[in-house]
Model the fold of this input.
Amino acid sequence: MMHGPVDTGDANLSGGREDPLAQPPATPEDHTPPHPAIRDLMRDGVPDGEAVELFLQNNAFPLIDETRATFVFRGDVDSVSLQHWIYGMPSSQAFTRIEGTNLWTHVLELRRSSRVEYKFLVDYGTTRELIHDPFNPQRAHDPFGSNSVCQTDGYEVPEWTFEDSEARVGTIHDHVVQSDALGGPRPLQVYLPARYRETRRYPLLVAHDGTDYLKFSSFKAVLDNLIHRLEIPPMIVALTPPGDRLKEYADDERHARFIATELLPALESRYPLVDKPAARGLMGASFGAVATLSTAWRHPGTFGNLLLQSGSFAFTDIGDHTRGPLFDPVVRFVNAFRKAPGGPASNIFVSCGIYESLIYENRSLLPLLQSTGMSVRYTEARDGHNWEAWRDRLREGLSWLFPGPLWMVYE
Amino acid sequence: MPHFVLLGPQRLEPIVKDAIDSLDVEAPLALVTAGWEERESEDEELRAHVGHPCENLRLYSRIEEVFVDDPEFHQAVIDRHDLLRNLQELYRGRLDHALEAARELFRRDGEAELIIPERADALAALAALDAHHLERVREVHAEFEAHWKPGERESLARQRDEVRTLLDQSGALAIAGGHVVVLLNRLRLFGILDAWAAGGDRPVVAWAAGAMVLTNRLVVFHDTPPQGPGNPEVLETGLGICPGLVALPHARRRLRLGDPVRVAIFARRFAPRVCAALDEHCRIDFDGTGWTAHGPTRQLQTSGQVEALPSERQAVA
Done:
């Protein structure tokens, strides 16, 4: 995910943030037999144009088998490389041209149930283009555009993320809250559940980057569905967009004060909320997760439930960090938190993708959180630092933090 | 002859009007929506669908009033609730292991003469655990009744009298679904079914959780919950009006009906009761000694299949 000219977690390719050629493409050294479809194509030697056409028409790309994805490009170009951000692998990997053709392939080792976002970097003459995979219609969107998506066997977009015609739907309302802490009006949106009544009391969830969760993580459909299926109770969700995100979400005292002492009272005066920390939650992804933990830490006991997705929890045990100056306040905060975590909330759900570099920081956070006596749930997925990975973990996280009456209600 | 009609969920494709029309009811309907809890009074949609005069008995809000009038009794109900929840957790822990053992045996291939007795014994252990739990829950209720004598408490007695008057003026009783325990407790506290029966053989139409509470075994279930293993749990005995049935509303959404191992264990665990999948358009009519299935009502079979219930009348064993 990217929210500005500099990323706060792992890179996302849909924005043009980094020169992909800053590091030379890795040279593949794959000696395993090619995918059966490639083998068939090459059976009689160099395939002619018609054979290549048929190959492209009859297969879905990338080609997936047990442990690999084979990416394919066709074109009269000088070079092609795969751009991705799987932590631990070279992020730029060169394709190999099939001798005698304009077909290029590259094999990437990927386990079952993986989901990877990527693009192709194509060079021809003096032109360099970062493009979608032309043979793969799957796309994932974020605030900076979109990427191609590779899904291996075992991964499916969860059915609860799609609009369900049986589910009653909630509504979204625009609001503005005046903030002294942040020095001006702050717009936000509020999700009200289906069958909302002023006469009832509801739990509250405040979502950092809430409007992006709506756009890129199907958040409204997810809330509608989970409430309809009784997996979470009907709840009110405040969807806050960031202002100066990289400052405000990086352990900014003013932001924490805004959320805990301005936004929360404003919501309480406007909506019928359950007046208990146990019925309040705060959530966010990447820097939004930092803002979530920081706000809860600065105002302990205000929010009983935290949902932290791919938190940018950079820290140092010794020496300096290498993530750039924007992370300075984050590192100061996480180091301070590690020294004195206190008890910011009662329940914390943490999720992270194993293909993102932040997996190290998130795994490191876990024993610390557990040592505080807070109830902690942690989950990992074969995915990266992106909105669809965060979408896919919402059911598990929300239903754990806010369990609904699933077992008892039969309407 | 008593006439009870059990239906599946009514929100999306309701047939409750058809059911009521088929009963030739002239007097107003007594309506129970206590399972909807705070939404109890939001019955406009239901009334519009039924198209028949209705009197909502307001059992949920009446009990809330009793709790305000009688805080000592309210506290006793809370304490009982906590005790039952703790019992359920203990049962759940044992059930987890017992069910996993049974599933493992059902998945395993082997010589029939070796494995079939093991499966049977695992199911017997499950049935014994369920029976043990039901007995403990029954003891809790019996102690509560003996100690607190709800029917003799002034506030509740007053509310009961009012409800009885409304029941006497009604031609049929309609019990909607919702929170199954809340519904059952409200019906019990008001002695609704006894009061209803005292007025003669008038029909009862109940759906979803309403159908569940009329049986004599309340089973809560979900094969794919977001948390936990999804083990069907026995809660307690229901009102026992329609014995021989385990009512499973929303089965198509809640159960993995295509998984023969789960279906077989479910059906065998509760045999000889009929595990009836009550989805949209499903209907079972009970006449006191037997029942007749209509529509697409299906049964979880001990073979692991899910098949249509026969439309001929079945006598209760």
Remarks:
- Chain A has two domains: 20-151, 159-401.
- Confidence is low (pLDDT under 50) at residues 1-7, 15-25 of chain A.
